[in-house]
Amino acid sequence: MNMTNDEYRRYAERHAPRSRVGRNCLGAFLVGGAICCLGQLIFTLWQAAGLDEEAAGTAEAITLVALGALLTALGVYDDLAAVGRAGTLVPITGFSNSVAAPALEFKTEGLITGTAVKMFSIAGPVIVFGLAAGTVYGLILCLLS
């Protein structure tokens, strides 16, 4: 079967799956917003428990990381990500998921060579480049002030 480039392009366009950008954006907005609302609720509950604003923020972050890891271990976070797409990546729970998921996936390879090595396979570059960017930003700020 010989096709020209234009014939192949038309063929590919007819058989390509339709884009679901609208649905994906709505899912990301709703799920990401729900995670952020949950974070605000947790923050308010920690403040109601007697923590000041800074301590409540720290406790909220720890709670969200633990909740993200727990939902990952239970297999719920994957279902949430199927609906929420990018909405599950941005909040701190997404970071927790990116650390916990590879650790769970490779636990059969052992504690050191499986869990410990693979735990930061996804989150590691984020940490490295985040620290590098923070260092550069700090140096620039120091030089300008």
Describe this structure in words.
This protein has 145 residues and is an all-alpha fold. The chain has a domain at 21-120. Helix content is 78%, strand content 0%. The protein has helices at 5-15, 21-48, 53-73, 76-84, 92-105, 111-118, 123-144.
Poorly predicted tracts of residues: none
Give the topology string: H per helix, E per strand.
HHHHHHH
The share of residues in extended strands comes to under 5%
Number of strands: 0
The geometry reads as extended
Find the structural class using helix and strand composition.
Answer: mainly alpha
Q: Cα distance, first to last residue?
A: 68 Å
Mean pLDDT: 87
Computed Rg:
21 Å
Q: Report the total helices.
A: 7
Helix content: over 70%
The biggest sheet, with number of strands, parallel, antiparallel or mixed sense and barrel status, is: none
Provide a short characterization of the protein structure.
Helix content is 78%, strand content 0%. The protein is mainly alpha-helical. It has a domain at 21-120.
Which terms would index this structure?
mainly alpha; extended; single chain; 145 residues
Question: Topology, please?
Answer:
Layout: H1 5-15, H2 21-48, H3 53-73, H4 76-84, H5 92-105, H6 111-118, H7 123-144
